[in-house]
Automatic annotation (TrEMBL), chain A:
This is Ras-related protein Rab-30. NCBIfam families: small_GTP (TIGR00231). The keyword ATP-binding does not apply. Keywords: GTP-binding, Nucleotide-binding. It comes from the Eukaryota.
UniProtKB/TrEMBL annotation, chain B:
InterPro entries: ARM-like, ARM-type_fold, EFR3-like_ARM, EFR3_Homologs. Belongs to the EFR3 family. Residues 239-249 have a biased composition (Basic and acidic residues). PANTHER family: PROTEIN EFR3 HOMOLOG B (PTHR12444:SF4), PROTEIN EFR3 HOMOLOG CMP44E (PTHR12444). Residues 226-249 are annotated as: Disordered. This is Protein EFR3 homolog B isoform X1. Pfam families: EFR3_ARM. Transmembrane segments: none annotated.
Length: 203, 835
């Protein structure tokens, strides 16, 4: 009898400049709502959501960090244990895009080297105010070896996809890791699970 | 309505039944522990835990502890299901049962039970519902207070630390709920700390990954004290609420955490504090930073306090290029922390502490002078405000003082030596930076370091002056370079005063006056100790010389004379034996002579001040010696001055509007203190009258030759000049002191006129020539040659006005190569002459 109510547990941390819509993305995904006039996050926020992927229960611990500089030290401490990072910027705000290299440095410094990073351009509902072209962001993410997705928390565009795709990738990664760990003494019947990666793909 | 509710409950019960059925354990066949667990749940969750059945379960668990883990697993399974179905009443009941079981069972098998317990707490904490979060936290806190006697290897508190820290930052819309959640978070963190801190097998709570969450969370709540207090509406509630405020609680938690920190953990605990203060820019108003570090210093184990200081110093260094206000904040915190840490604050690396502070001081001086943090990259992005830098410098100086005050005497004098060694002084090997900027920097550095020194020396009470003030220190302090600038000169005098004043008499001599009865000063006097006598034997000449030269400076102001008076007075009561008293009187009379002869063309004020200084000091010393005839003479002169020349008394000169007279050249002998009279009256009381009647002449030191200012050599030459001018008169008065070539030579070879010392000096010279290495002797002679040259110049200037043609005897004597363009007396001796 298993006491666990899930098959996989992943920690996902959202980072990015203040006001790019991290909290809204999380709210949209976990609660299905878009809180207008969402205030600035203090320190860090916690949400949990269990999703089912291919019949497996995946519990996502989502840590939504404050973008403000003053909380940087506490938010950094959450990077370390993260399985995945969602690096968010605002497509209508050039500044938030320009800060990305700085965020990548932070990731380099504080996060584990196995972490999966996804770049998210939020607020595509405000297309007429766009300051960062999709192509530019795609080029950037390619150069940095990240997945890239454009979302709108308001219109609920791509939000579900973002988290589900990420969960898929994490499962694949987790399986591969157990495989690598067991390479010394492979268990019978384990070898076939290598093709799980194909269950979802980005873009 | 009630019917409908009953229905809901009914279906719920059926639900449960079906579940059990699904599990494959129907009714009576279910294991006993499952039946016991099921029975504690009432039909209606509003009824609460079924107490009698709970007792049965507890009894069963106690009598069959091997079943405990299964009970736990089953309970948690039920609870998790209830949470997902939003049956919160049952959740609470399950939790209550768990708590009771946990409390009741202190046995080995608790370990497995704990695992399912923690899973349930985690489940509750995952919930968005504040009630469940709080419920989970409360259970966790109860658990944290249980002391387990068996180690547990596989327990991870990562999630708890993360979640509790997150709760500490709750931004729930409802203020009350927000406060509750935050309180819960703090309590939870406290629980984790309690649970793990002393168990080496468990997750190391001191790892940065945990500390970086725990500490900022506590500080975040701590810094919101004011807000929370101002919000509470009625005064009655205030008292109650304050007990429960998150700020108070987090302070308590922080203290507990720090109190448990071992040597190796301090660093990890303190670092996040400093980063938090950086990020929230809390150094600048500094109240909070000071409060934090007060909490830290008072709660950590005292033997570790120097680690905190070291970290702060390191942080100061890391912030070298931050705004002055930030640095000032850190330094202020350091100062406060040092006082709390008392003797332990500095730890094993005393000098490192002061080195860091002095380095920061120098950096700040540079910043203020250059106007940028980095000469190379002066993009002008950061504008340096000079007054802020100055505030920072003052803060550093203050901090230096508070550190020093925590040190034992021997370390303090070490520190003073260290600071003194950092004061930039010119020397043969290390010429100072030249140019205006360099001079300015040197001057500022000298002032700042002397200020620090003064700060360190205040309250310094050394029992043994000899060890406290080694000559390496005094030499530098009394160096001539430190006399050129009036501000620096005053600092040096004040430092000397605070060294010599060991009985707190300093303030009694703050103003110069000629009081009729010094008993009203209530001076505290100890008899001069043997060490003090030795100290004075060794250093008195140097001290006298310094005072003598200091009094001749034109730029002296009132403060200088007051300091000189204070120094003289303190020397007389702290360090004086008969010999010293005699010398001090000679010194003061020589000062009067300076004012009288006025060969330096001192301004009027300086001359009057010197007379007044003499009057005040002699008034004091006469009363201290208690020789009636001496007192009488002094008294007479002072009375005379009061009548005829009040501008020669301190009350006249050192007033708001000094009364000065233009006519200082014709002073009657009755208003001057006479050496002959004094030596006569004191001689009668057993003082050395021979010595008293010899005028004081300052001793020449090595440094005078190096210094750029008008050297003592010159002073002596001038005296030679004066003496040779007045020679006929002098011959009449003292035929023994006939100026012949021999006496002149003697005066050149041995510039000290003090006769008693001559023999001793000669012996030393002989010894030196016998023992010293060749280079040293050569250097010595070289120095003397320059002295000789300057004196010869002097004499030539006096005697032979028109430059004569190269005079054969002299050139021949010194092997001067012929160079016709320069008059011989202006030629320099070649270096080879030395050898």
């Amino acid at each position: 009898m298993s006491m666990e109510d899930y098959d996989f547990l992943f920690k996902i941390v959202l980072i990015g400049n203040a006001g790019v819509g991290k909290t809204c993305l999380v709210r949209r995904f976990t609660q299905g709502l878009f809180p207008p006039g969402q205030g600035a996050t203090i320190g860090v926020d916690f949400m949990i959501k269990t999703v089912e992927i291919n019949g497996e229960k995946v519990k996502l611990q989502i840590w939504d960090t404050a973008g403000q500089e003053r909380f940087r030290s506490i938010t950094q401490s959450y990077y370390r244990s993260a399985n995945a990072l969602i690096l968010t910027y605002d497509i209508t705000c050039e500044e938030s895009f320009r800060c990305l290299p700085e965020w990548l440095r932070e990731i380099e410094q504080y996060a584990s080297n196995k972490v999966i990073t996804v770049l998210v351009g939020n607020k595509i509902d405000l297309a007429d105010k766009r300051e960062v072209s999709q192509q530019r962001a795609e080029e950037f993410s390619e150069a940095q070896d990240m997945y890239y997705l454009e979302t709108s928390a308001k219109e609920s565009d791509n939000v579900e996809k973002l988290f589900l795709d990420l969960a898929c990738r994490l499962i694949g990664e987790a399986r591969r890791n157990t495989l690598v760990d067991n390479v010394e003494s492979p268990l019978p019947g384990e070898g076939k699970s290598i093709s799980y990666l194909t269950c979802c793909n980005f873009n | 309505m009630a019917c409908r509710r009953g229905l809901v409950e009914c279906t719920a019960a059926v639900d449960r039944h079906i579940c059990n059925g699904v599990c494959g354990c129907c009714g009576a066949l279910r294991p006993r522990y499952k039946r016991l667990v099921d029975n504690i749940f009432p039909e209606d969750p509003e009824d609460g835990l079924v107490k009698t059945n709970m007792e049965k379960l507890t009894f069963y668990a106690l009598s069959a502890p091997e079943k405990l883990d299964r009970i736990g697993a089953y309970l948690s399974e039920k609870l998790i299901r209830d949470v997902s179905r939003h049956r919160y009443g049952y959740v609470c009941i399950a939790m209550e049962a768990l708590d009771q079981l946990l409390m009741a069972c202190h046995c080995q098998s608790i370990n497995l039970f704990v695992e399912s317990f923690l899973k349930m707490v985690a489940k509750l904490l995952e919930s968005e519902k504040p009630d469940l979060q709080i419920l989970g936290t409360n259970s966790f806190v109860k658990f944290a207070n249980i002391e387990e006697d068996t180690p547990s290897y596989h327990r991870s508190y990562d999630f708890f630390v993360s979640r509790f820290s997150e709760m500490c930052h709750s931004s729930h819309d409802d203020l009350d709920i927000r406060t509750k959640i935050r309180m819960s978070g703090i309590k939870g963190l406290q629980g984790v700390v309690r649970k793990t801190v002393n168990d080496e097998l468990q997750a190391n709570i001191w790892d940065p990954q945990h500390m970086d969450k725990i500490v900022p969370s506590l500080l975040y709540n701590l810094q919101h004290t004011e807000e929370a207090e101002s919000r509470s509406p009625s005064p009655l509630q205030t008292t109650e609420k304050e007990k429960e405020s998150p700020a108070e609680l987090s302070e308590r938690c922080l203290r507990e955490l720090l109190g448990r920190a071992a040597y190796g953990n301090i660093k990890n605990a303190i670092k996040p504090v400093m980063i938090h203060l950086d990020n929230h820019s809390l150094w600048e108003p500094k109240t909070f930073a000071v409060r934090c570090f007060k909490i830290i210093m008072y709660s950590i184990q005292p033997q570790h306090s120097h680690l905190v200081i070291q970290q702060l110093l390191g942080h100061l260094d890391a912030n070298s290029k931050s705004a002055a206000t930030v640095r000032a904040g850190i330094v202020e915190v350091l100062s406060e922390a040092a006082v709390i840490a008392a003797s332990g604050s500095v730890g094993p690396t005393v000098l490192e502490v002061f080195n860091t502070l002095l380095r920061q001081l120098r950096l700040s001086i540079d910043y203020a002078l250059t106007g940028s943090y980095d000469c190379a990259i002066s993009g002008g992005t950061k504008i340096i405000k000079e007054h802020e830098e100055r505030m920072f410098q003052e803060a550093v100086i203050k901090t230096t003082g508070s550190f020093a005050s925590t040190l034992p005497t021997y370390q303090r004098s070490e520190v003073m030596l260290f600071i003194m060694s950092k004061v930039p002084l010119p020397s043969l090997h290390h010429p100072l930076d030249t140019g205006r900027a360099g001079e300015n920097r040197n001057r500022l550095t000298q002032i700042m370091l002397l200020k620090s020194l003064l700060q360190v020396s205040t309250g310094f009470q050394c029992s043994n002056m000899l060890t406290a003030l080694p000559s390496s220190f005094l030499d530098r302090l009394l160096s001539a370079t430190l006399m050129e600038d009036s501000e620096i000169r005053l600092f040096v005098l004040q430092i000397l005063i605070s060294f010599i004043d060991r009985h707190g008499n300093k303030h009694k001599f703050q103003t110069i006056s000629t009081i009729g009865d010094i008993s009203i000063l209530k001076l505290k006097v100890d008899k001069c100790s043997r060490q003090d006598t030795v100290f004075m034997k060794k250093n008195s000449q140097q001290l006298y010389r310094h005072m003598y030269l200091a009094c001749k400076e034109e730029t002296n102001g009132r403060a200088h004379y007051e300091a000189l008076y204070c120094l003289l007075a303190l020397t007389s009561i702290e360090l004086a034996n008969e010999e010293v008293v005699v010398d001090l009187i000679r010194l003061v009379l020589a000062m009067q002579e300076v004012a009288l002869v006025n060969e330096d063309n001192l301004p009027l004020y300086s001359r009057c001040a010197l007379y007044a200084l003499g009057a005040a000091y002699l008034n004091l010393i006469s009363q201290l010696t208690t020789v009636p005839a001496f007192c009488q003479h002094i008294h007479e002169v002072i009375e005379m001055r009061q009548k005829e020349a009040p501008y020669l008394l301190p009350e006249g000169v050192f007033a708001e509007k000094p009364r000065l007279s233009r006519n200082l050249d014709r002073l009657g002998p009755e208003i001057l203190f006479r050496q002959s009279k004094i030596s006569e009256v004191l001689g009668g009381s057993g003082y050395n009258s021979d010595r008293l009647s010899t005028p004081y002449v300052p001793q020449l030191t090595d440094e005078d030759r190096l210094s750029k200012r008008k050297s003592i050599g010159e002073t002596i030459s001038l005296q030679v000049e004066v003496e040779s001018r007045n020679s006929p008169e002098k011959e009449e008065r003292a035929p023994a002191e006939e100026i012949t070539y021999e006496t002149l030579k003697k005066a050149i070879v041995d510039s000290v006129a003090v006769e008693e010392q001559e023999r001793e000096r000669r012996r030393q010279v002989v010894e030196k020539f016998q023992k010293a290495p060749f280079e040293e002797i050569a250097a010595h002679c070289g120095a003397r040659a320059t002295l000789l040259q300057s004196k010869l110049n002097q004499i030539f200037e006096i005697t032979i006005r028109p430059p004569p043609s190269p005079s054969g005897t002299i050139t021949a004597a010194y092997g001067q190569p012929q160079s016709h363009s320069i008059p011989v007396y202006e030629m320099k001796f070649p270096d080879l002459c030395v050898y």
